[in-house]
Amino acid sequence: MGEEDINDEVFDIVNQLNHAIEPSQTKSHHYELAILKLRAGRKASDSTAFDTAIKYLKIGKELLGEDGWKEEYELTLNSLSKLCIRTVIMTKR
Fold first, then answer.
1. φ, ψ for residue 92 (rounded to 5)?
2. Do the beta carbons of residue 79 and residue 37 sit within 8 Å?
3. What span, in angstroms and rounded, lies between the C-alpha atoms of 33 and 27?
4. Crossing angle between the packed helical segments 73-91 and 27-46, to the nearest 10 degrees
5. What are the pLDDT tens digits along the chain (93 aa)?
6. Overall domain count for the chain
7. What's the rounded Cα separation, in Å, for the pair 10 and 69?
8. Could you give the CA distance from residue 53 to residue 57 in angstroms, rounded to a whole number?
């Protein structure tokens, strides 16, 4: 599956993967899932589906955990920044 295919199907992919998330999975697996959640969150935001974006970004935040800041700084920064912005937008509605 190419990058364009992933972008086209990102909602279906992350919704299916939500059922497969387990705490026993490796951190690298969680970080890969968090990347997909960030992509889904961005895509949802682009279509002004902020509730959906927040849902994906919150799951991504949980997947990153406390170690995300040390091990995946850019991913954590991007994910949490997007989450904060979307949350503010939703509270002002």
1. -90, -5
2. yes
3. 10
4. 40
5. 666 656 678 888 888 887 778 777 888 888 999 999 999 999 999 888 999 999 999 999 999 999 999 999 999 999 999 999 999 988 887
6. 1
7. 24
8. 6
Q: Which amino acid makes up residue 38?
A: L
- pTM of the predicted model, to two decimals? 0.84
Round the CA-based radius of gyration of the chain to a whole number and report it.
13
Domain, as residue range, for 14: 3-91
Helices (H), the chain: 3-18, 27-46, 50-64, 68-71, 73-91
Select from 61, 45, 43 the least CA-distant residue to 6.
43
- Return the residue matching tokens 């086209």: 8
Name the residue type at position 91. T
